[in-house]
Each structure stands twice: as structure tokens, then as C-alpha cells.
Amino acid sequence: MTTVPADSAAPALHIALVHPEIHWNTGNAGRTCLALGARLHLVRPLGFALTAREVERAGLDYWASVDPVVWAGWDEFAAHLDDFGEAYFFSAEGGRSVWDVIFPARVVLVFGGESAGLPAPLRTRYADRLVRIPMTPAPVRSLNLSTSVAVAGFEVRRQWRERGLLTPE
After folding, report:
1. What domains does the chain contain, in order, with CATH numbers?
2. What is the Cβ-side half-sphere exposure of residue 147, based on CA atoms within 13 angstroms?
3. pTM of the full predicted structure?
4. φ, ψ (nearest 5 deg) of residue 144
5. Could you give the CA distance from residue 66 to residue 150 in angstroms, rounded to a whole number?
6. What are the tens digits of pLDDT across the range 52-105?
7. Residue 4: what pLDDT?
8. How far is residue 99's CA from residue 97's CA, in Å, rounded to a whole number?
9. What is the Cα Rg of the chain in Å?
């Protein structure tokens, strides 16, 4: 699947990881971003060094192509958020299911770190934009960060394809 020619109406998907802690998850999310045609944003602090061999191993030989945008902190990233598209924040506290959101052609999917999720001030500030990934009732509290990125990112692409924003393969 390829995107339509670049212009202001062309779809743009951005994935932001706020305070990611585990290098394997970040590497896997980066590889998923390449498969989605998405841009990866990492918001410091990070729980690892980006030069760590483990990040590159998790991203396999794709990591050099990921070329993530690294932000000094939330305030720096938030100052540019509107430039990237409409933002949706993923949290188990989300009032809407990812299946109930109609994602626009320019969208930013924001995820928190592995142990605490999105910081509480972000969950409060963006309460109307919190989205959850539905799961069957079970003892599972959450999904792995990189799995969540894939679930949400491919749902966006599925919707875009149904609405004709992507051309068939």
C-alpha cells in the first residue's frame, strides 16, 4: 500500500512515545513506523541511550531508516503538536475505543512509557482525547507498548484505506 502523492491533503501519521523506558519496545515501534509510513517522535527523558546496541538490534537493520525525531521534553514537542495533525492520547483510562474514533488524514498517536503510561498531567489536560484499545475482560491491564503502537497505527491505515486516502498496493 502506498500513500497518495504528497500535498496538504495527503495522509500523515506521527507516532509519539512519551518517556519510553525499554529499548526493545522503542526499536520495535520504530520498525512498525517504517511499515506504516509513520514518523516516530521520542519525548525525553528516555530510559535508555539511543546509541545503545539493543535499540538497533530491536529495530534490526531498519533502525538507521527510522531516523526518529527526539524532543527535549513534552513542552518542546507540544509546541509543535498542531503542526503534525490532530492528536489522540492512548491510555487504559480512555473513554473511547480506538474503533470508535474516525482518524483524520493528519494524525498524531501519543503513547506513554511502559511502567506508568502517559503522565497524569497529560491524561488530565487531554482527557477528551484519551483513547483506549479494547480488550476482553481478563486479568490483562494493558498491552505491550510496541504492540499498542501497531494496533493503533494499523487501525488508522485501515480507516484511511476505506475512505480512499491510500491507494491500493
Report:
1. 2-167 (3.40.1280.10)
2. 7
3. 0.91
4. -60, 145
5. 15
6. 676 666 656 777 888 899 999 999 999 999 999 999 999 999 999 999 999 999
7. 33
8. 5
9. 15
Q: Which three cell numbers mark 169?
A: 498496493
User: Would you say residue 119 has pLDDT above 80?
Assistant: yes
Q: Which residue has the cell 493528519?
A: 106
CA gap 168, 65 in Å, rounded = 24
- The predicted model gives 134-145 an average pLDDT of 85
Write out 100-152 in H/E/C secondary structure: HCCCCCEEEEEECECCCECCHHHHHHCHHHEEECCCCCCCCCCCCHHHHHHHH
Quick check: 86 and 148 in contact, CB under 8 A?
no
Report how far residue 96's alpha carbon sits from residue 77's, in angstroms, rounded to the nearest whole number. 24
pLDDT grade for 3, boundaries at 50, 70 and 90 = very low
What is the secondary structure of 51-119 as a DSSP string?
Answer: T-HHHHHHTGGGHHHH--EEESSHHHHHTTHHHH-EEEEE-TT-SEEGGG----SEEEEEE-BTTTBS-
